[in-house]
Amino acid sequence: MPATLIKGKPIADRIRATVAEEVRELGHVGLVTVLVGDDPASEVYIRLKHKAATEAGFAAQDVRLPAGISEAELLTRVEELNADDAVDGLLIQLPLPDHIDEAQILRAVAPVKDVDGLHPFNAGQLFLGRPTLVGATPLGVMAMLHEHRIELDGARAVVLGRSDIVGKPLAQLLMQANATVTICHSHTKDLPRQTLDADILVAAVGVPALVTPDMVKTGGVVIDVGINRTGAGLVGDVDPGAEDVAAYFTPVPGGVGPMTIACLLQNAVRAARFRRGELAFPH
Ligand code: NAP
Q1: 29, 67, 83, 240: which has the highest count of C-beta atoms within 10 A?
Q2: pLDDT band per the 50, 70, 90 thresholds, residue 1
Q3: Torsion sign (Cα): 42, 16, 145, 243
Q4: Stated pTM of the model
Q5: Residues 63-79: pLDDT tens digits?
Q6: What element of type H or E holds 198?
Q7: Which of 94, 134, 186, when mutated, tests ligand 1's pocket best, judged by the most ligand atoms within 8 Å of its CB?
Q8: Quick one: angle between helices 8-26 and 256-275, nearest 10?
Q9: Residues forming the active site
Q10: How far apart are CA 269 and CA 262, in angstroms?
């Protein structure tokens, strides 16, 4: 029997409607994205984020900076946005050009405005089990699992990928929901041995169809975070044939992607509430 599709759009639409109401209530929520250079994939993501933010009523500002900007100039720009009271959420689109130290720039973002959850303070809070601002993609995946009432307590979850933006934070959230989590990466030996045991398998690697149907546990839940541009269009990290083995399956496109945008907007509202003292931001 083919799997139940976990579609992101209907859940994301609901989140975005709630966010729009909250923005109306708050009166003004400022969300700024900073794009350095002209990476085409980043341009697409920024465009989608702005369209969604504007539709939800945010004061959205799309800061574009030249690829040749120096690290010092970029730091100054980030500090200006930190100091700007009209800015609630601040997102630095990655990757940054090679001559810029990404970690240094992410550390410069005010933690209370860090809607990607990449500042060491927010990443540390998550690690300690006291999440403040957590990246939108891992939050989106958790919302999809929650929506379909997937049992996490005691489940065996396998996360493929250990990036700061997806794999690591998602593994933390799954562990905090009492799943038993295994994180796999490019040095993992015998990947199928890990994946075949997964009640919940998340692929976030950026390799088209890395996960083949014979790597999926019968009746398991498969979440495909991958977005890969190929000659055949956008494809995930999981071969769609896995749909015949799994009980739940996320499509690409239309799965995790829409959730990331919705949860980013949710994070910007959360940041606005932190900044207004409606939620306590730990100091
Ligand atoms: P990333 O920073 O490049 O990390 C990729 C991870 O996959 C690394 O940990 C890497 O291992 C691991 N990996 C690579 N090849 C592997 C292999 N053959 N076997 C096992 N592990 C392997 O990527 P990312 O930013 O996390 O993104 C991953 C994918 O998700 C990409 O397709 C990206 O476009 C997509 N994405 C989608 C959304 C969305 O909204 N749907 C959001 C973010 C990202 P090492 O650590 O050992 O190098």
Answers
A1: 29
A2: confident
A3: negative
A4: 0.98
A5: 999 999 999 999 999 99
A6: none
A7: 186
A8: 20
A9: 49, 93, 116
A10: 11
pLDDT at 2 over 90: no
Q: At 11, which helix (H) or strand (E)? A: helix 8-26
Residues 6+ away with beta carbon under 8 Å from 186 = none
Binding site membership of 253 for ligand 1 (Cβ less than 6 Å): no
Between CA 43 and CA 37 the distance in angstroms is: 9
Ligand 1, residue 94: give the atom nearest the CA.
25
Does the pLDDT value for residue 157 go beyond 90? Answer: yes
Q: How far apart are CA 31 and CA 46, in angstroms?
A: 12
As given in the structure block, the two tokens for residue 66 are 């030249």
Terminal-to-terminal C-alpha distance of the chain: 51
Contacts of 280 (CB under 8 A, 6+ apart): 274
Place of tokens 């606005």: 272
